[in-house]
From TrEMBL:
CDD domains, per the entry: SLC5sbd_DUR3 (cd11476)
Membrane topology annotation: Multi-pass membrane protein
Gene symbol of the encoding locus: dur3-1_3
GO cellular component: plasma membrane
Higher taxonomy: Eukaryota, Fungi, Dikarya, Ascomycota, Pezizomycotina
Identification of the protein by name: Putative urea active transporter
Organism: Lachnellula hyalina
Gene3D superfamilies in alphabetical order: Sodium/glucose cotransporter
């Protein structure tokens, strides 16, 4: 059966969503930006707003943004363990990022990008290495998103894959240029709200359709399917067991890659800098806990339903089974939604895909633009660049990357690289820099030589092991052999931990004694041209001339009051404990007792599914309802401003006192778009 025969939606639906909705969000963000600028002095043409949203994002929107950042992840389907590992492999990373975000907020209160921190501490050479590593991470992350999304859109609508690849980022580019990071937070919230409602609908519909009439029926369908198929590496070949060699390998590779996707993705650091000092820890923690339900619940229901329904007459590919190419391209979820909910389910998934990918692509665009403007243009091309010049470069960077990313994804598509290949390959390439990056924030002894040599040596080691083991296992180097689970696992493990070993060994040969107060030399960007410590010439020790010119670092004043600094220290301790607990729960206490010769019984399976579904609705509350409750006061004020603008009784922003990163703006939309410029007290 051809792909054309199983398409349920017309091509017009694909073009309507990718172009129509994209333009709606773009135009809407332009209007919102003008409203904020005119009435509330929240101007996206200022760097502090464009890059870090005035550092005042509230807990609710921080949590929503964290959830949104992982929505693009491809959900797996082969067995009940895979969705769990996908969830565990994202949650622990968010927990670790909570620790790093708190330390960054406390030590670098005026930071914009993590790369300018590398430059300030280690100098130009290290800065260049990490610019390269972070750009590679951003490029591969965006490419994976676009490859997965374009494949799903093609499966749903028969829209040409190249058309969907290039049209998906269109609206994202428009509203990102218009609103900067505040546009990312605002659209994150809107996208996540739509996605969570649709996911709740699709998961419930999975066990309430003509072929599956309830959880008990769902289990019976899966047991019957187990009788006619066997999954290699699973206990008794069952899809209802936790004992699965393939799932564990998948979980390890996926988790290592996701560690790097968090630490090496500068957009996560920017969201940490953008969060209010009282919002970073609870926002990241709440978002990480809530997100666990998305891959777990959706993978358990829709993913397993693909197995049970694949031989049913309601499945789109019937009477044939799905091909490996369809599975690797990400068609499993589209086919399942078509089966359980018909055209309505197909269109719902089309919206889900669009919302997930465009939201996360926006964050990637901001990340790349910040690297181009702050870390390349302002640092090496025009050190005395004004705020207006930095914004101009940021806008051109967004446009340029918005064209390059889909072009690169198209090249990979025609080169035979699919989403599954990218998912396994990713960790080997992006993991080498994450330990040296984390050490930059957490370990004062790491030396300049270590931070330069370790990631490059780790990258070379990982690639060598990846290619070498692929050759040994398969007898040749091909696209297919390089996609193998074991070569990708050995490559990822080598890239990750060899760089840590290299860094530690090199550091102990000649350790650095870094003074954290040097980070306080970073300044905010204002309308007048400025020169910060990050623009200074590196010293032999990896610091800056600006540091040498300050004889007594005690003269450097921390912008936060002592009470705020103490609160951040306590938050860092809590976040560290939280990370350890989350790691133990999701990787030891919960899964290991189930990793035995055991197949889920009907009562256990029903309880497992119900808990995952309840958790999914909890995620809906955290991502959609809580931000409204958290920002209700600002919503009310914004509503009054909007009404005043409509009736002509409101005051324009220029008549109000301009807001700062520590003041409370008298506005609503600024809290939604700008993450609420209200400082949370203890």
């Amino acid at each position: 059966m051809s792909n054309q025969a199983i398409v349920l939606l017309p091509q017009g639906a694909g073009y309507g969503v990718t172009i129509g909705l994209g333009l709606v969000f773009g135009i809407g963000m332009i209007l919102v930006s003008r409203f904020l600028s005119k009435y509330m002095n929240e101007r996206s043409d200022h760097s502090e707003m464009f890059m870090v949203a005035n550092r005042s994002v509230r807990t609710g929107l921080t949590a929503s943004a964290v959830i949104s950042s992982w929505m693009w992840a491809q959900l797996t389907w082969l067995f009940i363990l895979a969705p769990f590992w996908y969830a565990a492999g994202c949650t622990i990373q968010i927990a670790l990022m909570t620790v790093l975000a708190i330390h960054a907020k406390a030590k670098i209160p005026n930071g914009h990008t993590v790369l300018e921190i590398i430059k300030l501490r280690y100098g130009t050479a290290a800065h260049g290495v990490f610019i390269f590593l972070c750009l590679v991470t951003n490029i591969l992350a965006v490419t994976s998103m676009i490859l997965g999304a374009s494949g799903v859109i093609t499966a749903l609508t028969s829209m040409h894959v190249v058309a969907s690849t290039f049209l998906l980022p269109l609206g994202v580019v428009i509203y990102t240029v218009a609103g900067g990071l505040k546009a990312t937070f605002l659209t994150d919230y809107i996208h996540t709200a739509v996605v969570m409602v649709l996911l709740c609908f699709l998961t419930i519909r999975t066990f309430n359709n003509p072929a599956i009439t309830g959880l008990g029926s769902f289990y019976d369908v899966l047991v019957k399917r187990d009788e006619t198929r066997s999954i290699s590496g699973n206990y008794r070949g069952s899809a209802l067991t936790f004992k699965s060699k393939g799932a564990v390998i998948f979980g390890l590779v996926h988790s290592l890659g996701d560690f790097a996707l968090v630490i090496m993705d500068t957009s996560f650091w920017q969201k940490g800098f953008a969060a209010d000092t009282g919002a970073a820890m609870p926002g990241y923690m709440l978002g990480g806990i809530a997100y666990f339900a998305v891959p777990w619940a959706v993978g358990t229901t829709a993913g397993l339903a693909a197995i049970g329904l694949e031989s049913s007459s309601i499945f789109p590919t019937y009477p044939r089974l799905m091909t490996t190419a369809e599975i690797n391209a990400g068609y499993v979820l589209p086919y399942t939604c078509m089966a359980v909910a018909g055209k309505g389910g197909a269109f719902a998934l089309l919206l889900v895909v669009f919302m997930c990918v465009t939201s996360t692509v926006s964050a990637q665009l901001i990340a790349v633009s910040s690297i181009s403007s702050f870390d390349i243009y302002r640092t090496y091309i025009n050190p005395h660049a004004s705020d207006k010049q930095i914004i101009r470069v940021s806008h051109w960077s967004v446009l340029g990357f918005g064209i390059f990313a889909p072009a690169f994804a198209t090249a990979l598509h025609y080169g035979g690289i699919d989403l599954n290949w990218m998912g396994y390959f990713l960790a080997t390439i992006i993991c080498p820099g994450m330990f040296p990056m984390a050490f930059t924030i957490l370990w004062k002894k790491q030396s300049k030589a270590a931070v330069i040599i370790a990631p490059l040596a780790g990258l070379a080691s990982g690639i060598a092991v990846w290619i070498g083991t692929a050759y040994v296992y398969s007898g040749g180097i091909t696209v297919l052999s390089l996609e193998g689970q074991l070569p990708c696992l050995w490559g990822a493990l080598t890239s990750t931990f060899s760089s840590a070993i290299y860094s530690i060994v090199i550091t102990y040969i000649k350790p650095q004694d870094f003074d954290w107060r040097v980070f306080l030399l970073l300044n905010e960007v204002h309308e007048d041209k400025i020169s910060t410590a990050s623009n200074s010439t590196p010293s032999k020790e990896g610091g800056t001339d600006a540091v040498r010119n300050i004889r007594d670092l005690d003269s450097v004043v921390h912008p936060f009051p002592q009470a705020e600094i103490s609160r951040l220290k306590r938050a860092g301790g809590i976040a560290s404990i939280f990370s350890v607990v989350i790691g133990l729960l999701t990787w030891v206490v919960w899964p290991l007792p189930l990793y035995r010769n055991y197949i889920f019984t009907k009562p256990f399976f029903m309880g497992w599914t119900v808990v995952s579904e309840i958790w999914l609705f909890f995620c809906l509350v955290v991502a959609v309802v809580y931000p409204l409750v958290d920002g209700r006061d600002v919503l009310a004020k914004a509503g009054r401003l909007a009404w005043g603008a409509i009736t002509g009784t409101g005051k324009e922003g220029k008549e109000q006192k301009p807001s700062s990163s520590t003041s409370t703006p008298e506005s609503l939309m600024s809290d939604l778009a700008n993450e609420g410029s209200v400082s949370h007290e203890k």
